[in-house]
Amino acid sequence: MDSNSQNKRKNLHRSVAAFVVTCAVIALWSGPAQGAPDNGTSKTAQYEQTAKPSQQIRVNGKAKKKPTQLRPTKKNIDQQSVAVPAARQTTGTISLGFDPRINGFSFANWADDPNNISIGVDVLVRVFGQTSVCAKVIAGNCDPYKSVADFLTKLRMALANGRCDGLAVLASRFFRKQSSLSEFSPNATTVAELTVSQVDNEVVYWWATQVLPTFSKASSETRTLLPSQFADRVAMDIRSGAGSTIGIYANGNGHSVLPIAIRFNGALVEIDVYDSNTPGLTQTLIIDRDLESWVYVERNSSGLDVQTFSGNGSSGLDLVPLDARQSAPTTYFAWLDGVKPGK
Predict the structure, then answer these.
(1) Is 92 in the same domain as 23?
(2) How high is the pLDDT of residue 343?
(3) pLDDT-derived band of residue 116, with 50, 70 and 90 as boundaries?
(4) Residue 171 structural domain
(5) Do 169 and 34 fall into the same domain?
């Protein structure tokens, strides 16, 4: 192996070691009946296409106690980066027609004890493929690489903080008819009628697709956008029905939501989202294109602030399309076990 490849492997290994730290969060509630804000994470790890899975997962953040100012404020903004586009849309609304009361899940995102979480080799096989995860396949049964067990433990620790990304993705897939209600319930006519037990395994799978390299690439690319550019990208996404999820990051925390509508009002842009922490409600991400800043205040059914994210400039928001979550192979587990590819 050349020195460049060795350095890549070392960087990947260090990223694995940092995984639990990047996913540490504080849950505000417990149990799916009541819901728990899924404590953020970022999903922006870079790594070679056939090597290490991404180690940065969207989870949830800590609630803010102070009063919230809805209009973003100016703070250390590079004035050279906030020029107004020549033909910027200043009025109008674009909507998917997604109603969180019908198209969203009726139960809230929740935190859990890692020891109570079931996420097995079968999930990784779906994400990376059998040859990437299984050292041997005997009588149809996967004998996984030894390193897979440690990776699954880290996934359980992260998943314990919440399933926001998986819930957003699956709701999007149902809305786009990419997943069928009948696969999970013979009687359900809306997503809101589905139960936790019926969809939990599928939610976990889509949550786990955050470790794919294509996911990391899309996240990294869109986190370079200024808020005004990000708003334009979301508008394009909603127009096309791409079904992307938004990652929101601030102060070491993050969250995942599904954009469902966008409104232009001069310099301000309001992006309505389905947020699995607050079933049946529509939340709003506000972007100030003049100040290149943004704020997201999650509120419960009583109108009380649950948690707040805000930021200026780039890096605080990302947009990942559904097609960035396609299964892809990796040699990472084989490498950790000291097995050369193809052996």
Answers:
(1) no
(2) 55
(3) confident
(4) 3-62+109-213+324-336
(5) yes
Note whether 294 and 328 are same-domain residues.
no
Q: What own/partner pairs with CB < 8 Å and gap ≥ 24 does 78-84 have? A: 78/313, 81/226, 81/292, 81/313, 82/226, 82/228, 82/289, 82/290, 82/291, 82/292, 84/289, 84/290
Assess whether 42 and 134 both reside in one domain. yes
Instruction: State the SS3 of the chain.
Output: CCHHHHHHHHHHHHHHHCHHHHCCCCCCCCCCCCCCCCCCCCCCCCCCCCCCCCCCCCCCCCCCCCCCCCCCCCCCCCHHHCCCCCCCCCEEEEECCCCHHHHCCCCCCCCCCHHHCCCCHHHHHHHHCHHHHEEEEECCEEEECCHHHHHHHHHHHHHCCCCHHHHHHHHHHHHCCCCCHHHCCCCCCCHHHCCHHHHHHHHHHHHHHHHCHHHHHHHHHHCCCCHHHHHHHHHHHHHHCCCCEEEEEECCEEEEEEEEEEEEECCEEEEEEECCCCCCCEEEEEEECCCCEEEEEEECCCCCEEEEEEEECCCCEEEECHHHHCCCCCCHHHHHCCCCCCC
- 245 falls within a domain: yes
**Whose structure tokens read 């870079």?**
46
208 and 227 part of one domain: no
Overall number of domains in the chain: 2
For residue 197, report the phi and psi dihedrals to the nearest 5 degrees.
-65, -30
Q: Do 155 and 59 contact (CB within 8 A), yes or no? A: no
204 and 229 housed in the same domain: no
**Is residue 343 a part of any domain in this protein?**
no
Phi-psi domain of 128 (left: phi exceeds 0; alpha: psi -120 through 50; beta: other): alpha
48 and 177 co-located in one domain: yes
> pTM of the entire structure?
0.80
Query: Is residue 68 one of the residues assigned to a domain?
Result: no
On whether residue 67 sits in a domain, the answer given is no
- Residue 202 sits in the same domain as residue 262: no
Residue 10 is predicted with a pLDDT of: 41
Mean pLDDT to the nearest integer, 250-265: 93
